[in-house]
Specification:
By secondary structure, this protein is α+β, with helices and mostly antiparallel strands. It has 7 helices and 16 strands. The chain has 2 domains: 3-46 and 121-294, Glutamine Phosphoribosylpyrophosphate, subunit 1, domain 1 (4-Layer Sandwich), CATH 3.60.20; 47-115, Alpha-Beta Plaits. The strands form 3 sheets. The protein has a 7-stranded antiparallel β-sheet with strand order 7-2-8-1-14-13-15, covered by helices on one side. Strands 9-10-11-12-16 form a 5-stranded antiparallel β-sheet. The protein is globular and about 50 Å long.
Amino acid sequence: MCGIVGIYLKKKNLYEKLGNYLSGMLDNMSSRGPDSAGFAIYDKKNSSRAYKYSVCFPSSFDVKKFETTVTNRFKDVLIKNISDHLVISTIKNPKSFLSFLDDNYKDLKIIGYGKSIEIFKQVGNPKEIVKKFKLKKLQGSHAIGHTRMATESAITLDGSHPYSTGEDECLVHNGSLSNHNNLRRNLIKKGKKFESFNDTEVAAGYISNELSKTKSMKKTLTKCLSNLDGFYTFIAGTKNGFAILRDEIACKPAVIAETSDYVAVASEFQAMAHLPNVNKANIYEPEPGVVYTWGN
């Protein structure tokens, strides 16, 4: 049992409230996933040419030395440090910069990159993680999050969601996939790399691979119904918005609340009870095997 949440803001004047809205959603999903939590914040209005790289560092890591090295080597670098995470902004193209990190900083864990996305995740109680990363102060256009109850793997950062396997892409998942090992092998042959043995990372890799071909989140998630075996509710994020899909059996819960200001998605309504005017929202359960998208 895990908790998944997402919120998409329809009006730009609400962007400063995104972190506050999402923090309450994750707090209220702590009961579904007390072992770890994470979230992805998007700003689809970002006009910067820079890419943002979200990384996590160990307690022994020398952040100051790293900042000096990176700022001396690359132009136009900005580094934001929040707890044990860094968000590094640079105009250097992803292939070169990711190679630089991989070659020189094996102890850094790259958890996502893109022009719009920032990812934060860690082991621990979700309520404490929300405080740790100062989520209430973060701003943006849309976000997705996850609280995890470990059932099939250890309680580690590698098992924490969201998983990002493509530029400005990420996935959170409640459920279990039975054919992830075969999918992983096939995707590795196609050039995908995986950092864990978690089934959700495989699903994220599958979605990234298909999205690069279809250019449509709706078409991509529809293909999941034929190629991903198991039971699942997905929320998949991109720079423009997010989408939700429940498998055709739909044993994993989900609820949607939509107003003129926002769309909120969660495993349970209690995650959204604090949102403004939620009692006047159009509230419904997503139908099994149907893809719902906003912004994409």
